[in-house]
Each structure stands twice: as C-alpha cells, then as structure tokens.
Amino acid sequence: MTITTDAVVIGGGVMGTSILYNLVSRGMQNPVLLERTTLGAGSTGRSSGAIRMHYSTEVNAALAWESLNTYENFDEVVGGDVGFVKTGYMVFVPGDAVDGLRHNIALQRGVGIDTQIISREDAHELAPAFAQYDDEVFAWEPRSGHADPSGTGTAYATRARELGATVLLETPATSVEIENDRVVAVTTAKDRYITDTAVVATGPWSKRFMAGIGIDLPLEATRHEVFLLKRNLEELPFHPGGADMGNMTYFRPEGADLTLVGNGNREENADPDTYNPRPSMGYLEDVWLRLSKRLPGIAGAEYFTGYAGLYTSTPDLHPVIDKVDGIEGLYICTGFSGHGFKLAPAVGNVMAELMLDGAASTVNIRALKMDRFKRGEMNTTSYDFKVIA
C-alpha cells in the first residue's frame, strides 16, 4: 500500500517519540513513526533513567538543562506522568581534578544550571551516608533526579497520537528511497510512505541503517551493565544520586529501598541483535566493591536484579543531530553515548526546529554536526568525566 505523509521518523525510542511529538505539536499534520518492535525496546528500555546536568561541554549541558525543565513539569508541558523523582545529584572529584570540576561548574552555571561546588560540611549534611576522602571536592545539583525512560517514550507517543500522528509497531523501515539527491519515500516490508522528510533515530542500529543509504558514520554499539541492590533501610535509609570519579561509579536511589549502580568506563562493542542482556558476575563484584567504598552501608545489601543495555557511541561521546548534507530531507539523530534519555526533551525540540525552521534556536547544536569527524573538530575537553552515565 502507498501512503502519503509529511514526515517519517524511524525509531521508537525516547528520541524518536520526542521528535514525533515535537513535530506534531508544532502543527505538522500527519507524521508517521516506524518502530521495528515495540516502543523503547532498544536503549531506552534499558536506560538507567538518571537525570542530571554535569557535563563538560556547553551543548550537552544546555540540552540537559532544557530537558530538566520539561521533566519537572512533564504533565503540564507534554501530558502524562513520567515518574520524575527529585533526589539531588552529588559529584565526587579527587583533589588533583579540582581544576576540571571548577571548569565544568563555571560552564554549567553560565548555561543557567542550578549547581555549585560545596564544602565538605555541606556535603556531609546533604548525604551523611557517603564516605569522604581527605583531598576530595564536591559538587551538588539540587534539582536532579530520575524518571521512567520507557514511560517517557510512551507518554510522548500517546500525546503525539492524540495530536494526529501515527505510531506503527512491529514495522521496521527497510529503506529510504532517494532520487536526485532528495528523499522521496520510506519503505517497509508491506508499505511505501511517500514523503520528502525522513529522520533516522535508530539508536544502536544507526550505523547499519545509515550504511544502507550509503553513509558511513563512526558509530559503535557498546554494551553497558547496571544492577540494583536492596538496601538495609536501618543502615542506609536514603542517599542522593551521584557520580564518584575516585571509585569510577555512578548511582541513584530507586523506589523506597533500592540503589541502582553502574560504571561508564567498562564497555565492549556489541551486535544490537545478539548481545547478552544479562549482567555478569565479574562486573557485579567489581562495581559493588567500588560502590561500598563510597557507600559503606551498601556492603550488606542484597542483590536484586541487573541488566545490560546498549549505548550508541561516537568518538567524542557526543551525539549527531543534523541534516544530512547532499540529501535533501534526510535528518539524523543518534550517537548519544549513554546520555540520550537525559537530553531527549530538548533534542526533540531542536530537531523539530531544524526540520521546520531550517535551524535550531533553543540550543546551538553546531557542535553536533555529522561532518565534524571529517573536519577534525570533535568535541573534546580535558575535563570530561566519562564515568557519569
């Protein structure tokens, strides 16, 4: 069957659904989203769900800050409950990295983010369960927290449907048809969607999908594990979220008595169709021991569950958000390197601006252009604390 539509969004994770919602909320009449299986079945459904703004580049910090404003008021701004919980977020940095922390905090405050370096006494008052080391420096984000990634994607899709969009599950896109350097259609196994606009938001499948269009991007699907521990509430009733640069862990509370923990530096390339989604015992032992150095009360916790998900990583750990040069009407939104959920509301907005207005205005996204790798203008900084996921 042949169907005509204003735009096709390929990929039903939180990024694709955010783009779809932002397009239709701005007046696009009948956009279509094609999802290969179910909403959030890729990286979104296995995200840690953390929401924080500690970044070392202005573009990521600005996207995170804009996104927080949506997460805090999601029902009012978009519609639906995404389970946002404000816990605060503490960053622990060894003394030899204090210059990096000061750089980051100054950059973030310049964007408008509510964050600051705090004293040892204030850090202890905010989070008495955390151990402190003699030479450490502490940063604090009072408004950060976590939310439900799958619920967020579903909320975006639900609201987009209400506004006139179409969301199709179990409908993988098979190709983007290009004639005379212009998008003319997107096809599935059964249907052909005539359109002059297509957005590739396919997460860890992006490298493979773009290769089918003749575009080679330096994207890698990498496997990352997280697990949850059931705390003894008498020993450890509560703690904020945080990132521990000394022990190389990140963590946040979950529910009344769980702690989610991960590590952003242990990674391996993986095939998104065949990777192992289960946690490994070696990872569990290693990261649990590291966490207990910061949270001594977690040593006696019980293992609850764990899982592995996929990041879509770029060489500079920053996404690609751009229109494809040389192919009119083709856009790409991928490569978030583990940070996509935190940035999704703002990314959907800037993508809609790029597509409908010709340029993003809410946040300057020039640093995220797809040709930066060839130009040798990757996003780099001496103070990029990769451990924070």
Q: What is the gyration radius calculated from CA atoms?
A: 21 Å
Shape: globular
Q: What's the story with the biggest beta sheet?
A: 9 strands, mixed
CATH architecture designation of the largest domain:
3-Layer(bba) Sandwich
CATH homologous superfamily placement of the largest domain:
FAD/NAD(P)-binding domain
Structural class: alpha/beta
Mean pLDDT: 95
Number of strands: 22
Give the total of domains: 2
The number of helices is 10
Question: How helix-rich are the residues, as a percent range?
Answer: 25-40%
Strand content: 15-25%
Could you name the CATH topology of the largest domain? FAD/NAD(P)-binding domain
CA(first)-CA(last) distance = 43 Å
Q: Can you identify the CATH class of the largest domain?
A: Alpha Beta
